[in-house]
Amino acid sequence: MADFKIRKDAQEWASKMEKPAEWLEFDLYYLCAVIGLSGGWYDDKLQEKDARGFVDTFPGDFRDTKELIVSWLIAGVAKKRSIAFTEKKAVHGVLKEVLQPNPMMPLSNEGVDHLNRFSSGGFEKLRSYFDERPPVTFDDLLPAILSHLPEASK
Amino acid sequence: MDDEIVGISESMKSPERDKLQIKEGIYMGNAVLNLRSGPIFVTIGMSKARLVIDAEKEIREFVTKYAGKEKVK
Lengths: 154, 73
Description:
The structure holds 2 protein chains of 2 kinds. By secondary structure, chain A is mainly alpha-helical. Chain A has one domain (4-153). Chain A has helices at 8-14, 25-39, 62-80, 88-98, 109-129, 141-148, and strands spanning 4-7, 19-20, 51-55. In chain A, helix 3 (62-80) packs across helix 4. Chain A starts with a strand and ends in a 6-residue tail after the last helix. Chain B has one domain. The radius of gyration of chain B is 17 Å and the shape is elongated. Chain A binds chain B through residues 16-23, 27, 30-31, 34-35, 37-38, 61, 67-68, 70-72, 74-76, 85-88, 91-92, 94-96, 99-101, 103, 106, 137-139, 141-142, 145-146, 149-150, 153-154, and chain B through 6-11, 30-32, 34, 39-41, 43-46, 49-56, 58-60, 62-63, 65-66, 69-73.
């Protein structure tokens, strides 16, 4: 099973930020993925050496919301390929590629790789919101992210 | 537009691949459904998930989850 991978520079960027005690590494990954998926920012150039695998299934509260993330990924991959949801054969192809028949981990290896790339693309945007200076605290994240979200996703 | 199934994954359990099998109200496969209200995704054991991401709502909910919690470095 493929690992969710977070960029090493994203880990470093967030390492000094004050975070909730219950914070999971997947929280940063998720935030970046939401940003990446909402704006269609996909990192084609992400390389194995630049990222670290940290978990191979949806952790904590994300177990209950994984279908939502999966659905956004399907939409994100379809949009990236300019596939409309009326194109039955093409949509079927996306589902076949992205999903696997495992309710606990519904994403295939290819699906995880796509999500890793959207998360990486999202991190690139997130970092740019802060002019390369990481936020001091988690509370600084929300206003910065919301002020930069693409209009289409608001 | 009528409600229509435009995609079904390989995990679909029914051999009848043109129909989404619904058993006791639970969807038994993975499918993208085109509904009048827009496309949705359904999968095993769940009802529906939106294919359109509302990033602002999701990020607000995410932050709310941690509101008031102790912060550490």
